[in-house]
Amino acid sequence: MKDISASVASYGVVPVVVLNDPAEARPLAKALMNGGLPVAEVTFRTDAAEESIRIISEEFPAMLVGAGTVLTTEQVDRAVAAGAKFIVCPGFDPEIVDYCIGKDIPIFPGCTTASEVAWGVKRGLKNLKFFPAEQCGGVATIKALCAAYVGVKFMPTGGIGPKNLETYLSCDKILCCGGSWMVKGDLIRAGKFDEIERLTKEAVEMAKSIRG
Ligand code: 3PG
């Protein structure tokens, strides 16, 4: 399977974006690029996701754009046709996981229990999502899971922000952290893309100072 883990690990942080209008995609992508974070997970929680991924992928080829909150194989197809380079699922849906593996599409399925991690490992996956991170025990749970499954790394999302980023990124079992703190819905809706760029720069600087 194509491996994008080195790219997301090098960014340290993956913005998790909810867009209500594809017209928001262009200024959002520009703010992330200017902020030094050329990566985004655009979630299929809204109808704007597919077209937003298409705009980002066509107009910002240097950006690594993926699809999040993917709940069906039909959404996988739509996301990939629009230009998504990776798929993120909140949970472990064997049908979606096997579909992506069969099509060589990088996938991060959500795994928060030993059983779910075992299903991923059995399929050869080394990079898994951990969601909702804070509610599921955060780094302590991840370390406990990795004691048994040594080759696995996690992309935690849910409840991560400037206050706890260091706790996560300083653990070598964390590939990168996902989060929405620099791309909050109210900032996007208000067109505050300068603020998004500022928060993005801040996140990049934090990630660099933690990981070097
Ligand atoms: C989500 O569920 O939207 C993502 O996991 C991001 O969570 P966050 O908004 O707590 O960063």
Describe the structure.
There is one protein chain. This protein is an alpha/beta fold. It contains ten helices and eight strands. Strands 3-2-1-8 form a four-stranded parallel sheet. A two-stranded parallel ribbon has the order 4-5. A two-stranded parallel ribbon has the order 6-7. Helix 2 runs parallel beside helix 10 and helix 3 packs parallel to helix 4. The site of 3-phosphoglyceric acid (3PG) has 10 residues, from strand 8.
Overall 3D shape: globular
Bound molecules: 3-phosphoglyceric acid
| Average pLDDT level | 97
Instruction: Determine Rg (CA atoms, Å).
Output: 16 Å
CATH topology type: TIM Barrel
Strand order of the largest sheet: 3-2-1-8
- Number of separate domains: 1
CATH architecture: Alpha-Beta Barrel
Count of helical stretches: 10
CATH-assigned homologous superfamily = Aldolase class I
* Terminus-to-terminus distance: 28 Å
- Name of the CATH class: Alpha Beta
Number of strands: 8
Helix percent band: 40-55%
In terms of structural class, how would the helical and strand content be classed? alpha/beta
Succession of helices and strands: HEHEHEHEHEHEHEHEHH
Uncertain residue segments: none
Strand and helix map with partners:
Elements: H1 5-11, E1 13-17, H2 25-35, E2 39-43, H3 49-59, E3 64-68, H4 73-82, E4 87-88, H5 94-102, E5 107-108, H6 114-122, E6 127-130, H7 138-148, E7 153-156, H8 165-169, E8 177-179, H9 185-189, H10 193-211
Parallel strand pairs: 1-2, 1-8, 2-3, 4-5, 6-7
